[in-house]
Amino acid sequence: MAIYIYGSYMLSRQKTRKLLSRAKTLNCFLQRYILVSVSLRVVLMENGDSNEGYDPSLPVEKWCGDDRLYQWKGFWFRPQYLLGTRQVLDKFKPLPSDVILASFPKTGTTWLKSLLYSIINRSSGACLRSNHPHMLVPTLEVQLYGPQQQSFSNFASTSSSSRILATHLPHQILADAVRPADCRVVYVTRNPKDTLTSFWQFVLKSRSYEEPWPLEMAVEKFCNGVVPFGPYYDHVLGFWKESLERPEKVFFITYEELKDDTKTQVKRLAEFLGCPFNGDGEEEVLDEIVISCSFEKLSSHEVNKSSEHSPWMRLPMSSFFRKGEVGDHRNYLNNEMVERIDAITVEKFHESGLMYGVN
């Protein structure tokens, strides 16, 4: 007879010891009073995760604290996102009119969600004031599929003719799903050092651990590619190469380009999406969108400052807004860290023609 005790990787050491102690007590009780031979197995899973469809043969690595990442098709996933990813590939049916926002985590996803929604819907700031960007543009493997999925049919029926969907999935995995539909893809990336810094800060503020996640460990994991949806460089290169092969369907943009000249880049995005700002009064609409989607405006809305947890993650809504600056890594990374990341960036990108991300 086997009894499974389900716990969580997120448990503190003290709580884990209590869990094991209770398991042993249960074992003794069953053997003494029920007279059965019991094999107790303690199964630790991610907080709130389902291991449905989990393949125990997948390579596994510790990532942050006791959190595990699982490697699938060359990329690393947290368990719930691996389940969501497999469901996306099995069930998601993209339409030719769909717009897919693809990104590596912490590269400007929230900002692009606001911009794309506003461009396509010609939306003023009113909608953004009352709705978090992640509620306007749901993420496939997080909100529409997986353990925390929301109603896809409801989203589809209330969206515009162009559904805007987001994903952190790499092109190498996503391609088979979206290429046949011939839909448009917008990919945003960010300097690897700022991406790492933002991701590290996001983890520190949005999760509770017995001990903080050392920056040195975060750098090590990032450089080795062992981060959710990583390796970062493979992720970027997948969409970069696809944008060169199919520029009419894949729009590649950097966070730095957007920050440097937001208005020009928004116009380029609108032209790519087939809804340029050409009509009477459209210049004013363009200016309104640029202002209403600025970091300063978005981060000032109560819905984005809320400490209330999102329905799809155990994270406060405010955790998706920090600084929105270019070059913030200089406040955290030392020279040795910068030189190491720059060397890897040159090595990974130099043959692709993507001259990006090095000081």
UniProtKB/TrEMBL annotation:
Entry keywords, A to Z: Transferase
InterPro entries hit by this protein: P-loop_NTPase, Sulfotransferase_dom
Stored SUPFAM superfamilies: P-loop containing nucleoside triphosphate hydrolases
EC number(s) recorded for this UniProt protein: 2.8.2.-
Ranges where the Sulfotransferase domain occurs: 96-353
Protein family: Belongs to the sulfotransferase 1 family.
Protein's name in the database: Sulfotransferase
Natural source organism: Salix brachista
